[in-house]
Write a structure and sequence with these properties.
With 105 residues, the chain is an alpha/beta fold. It has a single domain (3-104), classed as Glutaredoxin, CATH 3.40.30.10. Helix content is 36%, strand content 26%. The protein is built from 4 helices and 5 strands; from the N terminus they run βαβαβαββα. It has a 5-stranded mixed sheet with strand order 1-3-2-4-5, covered by helices on one side. The protein starts with a strand and ends with a helix.
């Protein structure tokens, strides 16, 4: 299960992480987000010792999506050393996301 990120824990869990972070910006009413959500949870389990895979509900969190100018969801950001190094906007496949994670490990 992916970790929930919000305005209060973003700095500690994402920016200060010693391992790469995959952050999915989503909302419960978003159809493509509901398609990607189980994939994100599977990746969280598969990469649990190598990368932090997390979700940020844009309805519950205003500052973090604004900071990264998230205009469309799902938007998935890939962080390494606290910096965004890759991005996917829209629904995609597990294979595409896994490949991007492997590139930043």
């Amino acid at each position: 299960m992916a970790l929930a990120i919000n305005d209060n824990n973003f700095q500690e869990l994402v920016k200060e992480s010693s391992i790469p972070v995959v952050l999915d910006f989503w909302a419960p009413w978003c159809g493509p987000c509901r398609m990607v959500s189980p994939i994100i949870d599977e990746l969280a389990e598969e990469f649990k010792d190598k990368a932090l895979v997390a979700k940020c509900n844009v309805d519950d969190c205003a500052d973090v999506p604004a900071q990264f100018r998230v205009m469309n969801i799902p938007t998935i950001l890939f962080f390494k050393n606290g910096e965004v190094v890759d991005k996917v906007v829209g629904a995609t496949t597990k294979a595409v996301l896994a490949e991007k994670i492997n590139k930043i490990l």
